[in-house]
Amino acid sequence: MDNLYRDFILEHYRDPHNKGVLDPHDLHFADSNPTCGDEMSMTLLLDGEKQRVADVAFDGRGCAISQASASILTDELRGMTLDELRALDPKEVIENLGVPIGPARLKCALLSYKVLQGAVIGAEARWPDEADVLAGGSAP
Amino acid sequence: MDNLYRDFILEHYRDPHNKGVLDPHDLHFADSNPTCGDEMSMTLLLDGEKQRVADVAFDGRGCAISQASASILTDELRGMTLDELRALDPKEVIENLGVPIGPARLKCALLSYKVLQGAVIGAEARWPDEADVLAGGSAP
Amino acid sequence: MVIEQQRADVFDGAALRADFPVFDRPHRSGKPLAFLDSAASAPKPRAVIDALSDAYGHHYANVHRGIYELSEDATARFEGARAAVARFIGAPSEREVVFVRNATEAINLVAYSWGRTNIRAGDLILSTEMEHHANLVPWQQLATETGATLEYVAITDDGRLDLDDLRRRLAREPKLLAINHVSNALGTINPVAEITQLAHDAGALVLLDAAQSVPHMPVSATELGIDFLALSGHKMLGPSGIGALWGRRALLEAMPPFMTGGSMISKVTLAGTTWAEVPLKFEAGTPAIAEAAGLAAAIGYLEGIGMAKVRAHERFLFERAWAALSDIGGVRLLGPASPDEHAAVISLVIDGIHPHDVATIFDGHGVAVRAGHHCAQPVMARYDLPATTRASFYVYNDLDDIERLTDAIHATQRLFGTA
Amino acid sequence: MVIEQQRADVFDGAALRADFPVFDRPHRSGKPLAFLDSAASAPKPRAVIDALSDAYGHHYANVHRGIYELSEDATARFEGARAAVARFIGAPSEREVVFVRNATEAINLVAYSWGRTNIRAGDLILSTEMEHHANLVPWQQLATETGATLEYVAITDDGRLDLDDLRRRLAREPKLLAINHVSNALGTINPVAEITQLAHDAGALVLLDAAQSVPHMPVSATELGIDFLALSGHKMLGPSGIGALWGRRALLEAMPPFMTGGSMISKVTLAGTTWAEVPLKFEAGTPAIAEAAGLAAAIGYLEGIGMAKVRAHERFLFERAWAALSDIGGVRLLGPASPDEHAAVISLVIDGIHPHDVATIFDGHGVAVRAGHHCAQPVMARYDLPATTRASFYVYNDLDDIERLTDAIHATQRLFGTA
Ligand SMILES: Cc1ncc(COP(=O)(O)O)c(C=O)c1O
Ligand SMILES: Cc1ncc(COP(=O)(O)O)c(C=O)c1O
């Protein structure tokens, strides 16, 4: 679908926000999308109370969708509490992308979400259930 | 196929020739048709030179086709040499039955042949290849 | 003999034949086909055949990995079929449904994967004397390889499971009870909910071979309380080459894969491999894609009738057939007489005539039945029979088929002079 | 870019599209379908779809055990399909052909049955760096379970098997070499006859994963000299849910069964079981009956064209596609450049654009390609790529598809600003 590749998606891909590795950091996780081999890591720095996100960065290689999704997602995280991160709805991540994501690209769009979940739960997170995430009817 | 069940087949079934067990005997073998559970044994008595069949009997339970086939086959064996028995063509066994045998009943018709082969080779014989035996075009 | 045409059932089986092309085909007997071998495999309605043609013609591509329209379409239909199976058998989640070739593979999968991980020397596995070979031989193999003991729950003279014998054997704390819901050789319906309760109380898991029940009656894995369920698509009007294993998610997740290869992996390196999530972990390689769509169509066809009605229809035919057959001299019937305990699968013996002869002669009358051991040789041994003749009924059967059956028996007895 | 329409090949691929209903179906791109993913699974010609409908509608019953017309008919067609497969792959006898679900199951069958009986701790098994997961993971599992060593023959930078490395590893006397004929990730055609000679000289058996060769070129198991061959029906225009294992008869006969149940037994008692003869010994339960007929129809369709012509057609398309793609800046091609060593399967990398994005954008242009690791993650690791885009060709492809492909690449590069 060409209309996945709106200008702002391509801009995020070419010029991703929050790309890199935070050093020092409080949380770190790396995961991959087994269907395409994309790898992504995320580092988070917390505030003094270790409650809220002070800074965040992601790193790794991937497609435009996974990179743009990570770029857009990480922009939203500063100031959020760990509980808020854990409660994040994958549907919202998809909606925030602002382009129609079908089942074939869902894992690309959710890789950043999965890595983030891994970072906050301290273990590999499951892929969200396709049926749940696409139920909103955002499939093309 | 009703025309399998000609009167002479049913007569052989009701009144089989050479039924029973020879005691003493020179050769003995028992085998079964795994698809229907029929079991058959054969005993053969050889002549003084242990070359030719002096007497033969078969025993066991089975369908009309396997019983008639054994009855008809055993009628033919007296006086034959062991080499002749081993060279017996399963096609002839089918032809001697005188009724059209299709693939579904081939094992019934050839059980006696297989038991006889077992007796003369002293080990379980293989089922003849269906394609070979039916090639004659006797299939319905 | 003419069977009285008053009906107490719920739909007209003969009318459904119009949906099944096989009944239009000319048969060499010159007679219409009285098909009484559905327990072996069922004919297919046009709805299933058309669903296959449509799936192959317009929605076919490999599933799961394709980023293009056709593959997304094929994947959605394949996963939709999984959901249909889950709904049809009352499974809590479609993620617990593994597509396999047939019930046999479903049982082998459990024997290999669960069995090789959980069964140790000295363990006890229970099966029963009434099982199909598919639910016997894999357990024999498992017992042989692991040094476990395999025992068979006894059956009664009238073909019911001996519940006292079951209780005695359960007291020795088997790890698993592998049992069929409906016996294909006897027609017996086992009281599975009650049996499962007993087995669970004794700490045993229950694997249900539902190959003969799911096609013919409402079955809910949840309500029965079982742990694994095996079924075959081809016995429920669906395509050949597809079946399903259902298992409780926690069990499936703890099990290692059975076959390995594409689709079932998470990450492969030359040094080693990690597995995909359930159910993909158990589906190595390209699955029976269009056949899954065909199975969903078969489920749709059966749901269109309603499984309670299917069961009522078959119960009615069973009662009529049992009564009619009981009236014929020289005919013995196997299995329980009560329609509560007996599906529309009737194993019979005609005195003095071998089942192979029976089936051949019936074929000449256009009546298709099965003759043999029905892949249940221990049942034959139990009743000291070489084989039986089996007539089994389904949605397209009706009273006329019972008449054709009884007529064929009379004709056969006349031919053999045993009438 | 317009590709010159002068042709050096043998038939008109575009004209064959009329035989395949999928090309009539409307696609959401609004454009005709340029299907370049046949290496994953092939569309079906009407001849196959109709053969399936006919098999299900008029010739369907369970096979092997039925004594009535329909079952005899179904059995004859099923065994006829086995003979067709044997003929198609140059097997000495159809009794050496085992029907399975797919190539993956064929390989697992050998790994379980032959492997568990013949491989001991310390033994060496060889596979290669270019294998599909189906020909890697089963051997990893076997090695892990038995304590054997699994090594991978190296591949060269241009994707050919490193024959020196093969010789070195063969010198250590492996028991088995498991190798693909054509790599689905690189397109490489391996010199199997030569490799088999080397392996046999070293005392190793050769299992050939022919999933990507049998559909596309004449293959003779006898001429290649191999010991086992695995194939999938769905990649050769046939149905899903059916594939075949061929093995030398003596090997198959010496192997224990893999799955157990009905049809594959000789005699079952509660105390133990004996097995049916090859190939039935390996076909537990009800097989993919109608799918076998469909596979025979696919073979008939391919034989109607002639496999030498199929190969010539694809070789022509490969040469044209390779040349056209090589001309595009920012595009890198994997695998050997010679058409003698490269099937019509081209893995490519477009600089700066991820294959997943490529495939999605191509889909918008009606061009279906595969993006990913192609179930060959070690190949990706070897070339340090996360994934590639793969275009694969078959009988219905032609020069217009190459043009669609190159146009789509240009459009993608423009969209990403990398043109
Ligand atoms: C080289 C090769 N081997 C094996 C396979 C596995 O085939 P299937 O998924 O049909 O078992 C494939 C399919 O992609 C393949 O390309
Ligand atoms: C009770 C029962 N279990 C298992 C099976 C095996 O089914 P399949 O051959 O489809 O694997 C059958 C089929 O006859 C059956 O009747």
Give a short overview.
The complex is a heterotetramer, with 2 copies of chain A (140 residues) and 2 copies of chain C (419 residues). By secondary structure, chain A is of the alpha+beta class.
CATH fold-level label of the largest domain in chain C: Aspartate Aminotransferase, domain 2
CATH architecture of the largest domain in chain C: 3-Layer(aba) Sandwich
Radius of gyration of chain C from CA coordinates: 22 Å
Instruction: Give the number of domains of chain A.
Output: 1
Total number of helices of chain A = 6
The total of beta strands of chain A comes to: 3
Molecular structure report:
The complex is a heterotetramer, with two copies of chain A (140 residues) and two copies of chain C (419 residues). Chain A is α+β, with helices and mostly antiparallel strands and 140 residues long. Chain A has one domain: Alpha-Beta Complex (Sufe protein. Chain: A). Chain A has six helices and three strands. A three-stranded antiparallel sheet of chain A has the order 1-2-3, covered by helices on one side. In chain A, a hairpin with a 4-residue loop joins strand 1 and strand 2. The longest helix of chain A is centred in the C-terminal third of the chain and has 16 residues. Chain A is globular and about 40 Å long. By secondary structure, chain C is an alpha/beta fold. Chain C folds into two domains: 130 residues, Alpha-Beta Complex (Aspartate Aminotransferase, domain 1); 255 residues, 3-Layer(aba) Sandwich (Aspartate Aminotransferase, domain 2), CATH 3.40.640.10. The two termini of chain C are 14 Å apart. Chains in contact: A-C, A-D, B-C, B-D, C-D. At the C-D interface, helix 2, helix 3, helix 4, helix 5 and strand 9 of C face helix 2, helix 3, helix 4, helix 5 and strand 9 of D. Bound molecules: pyridoxal-5'-phosphate (PLP) (2 copies). One pyridoxal-5'-phosphate sits at the interface of chains C and D.
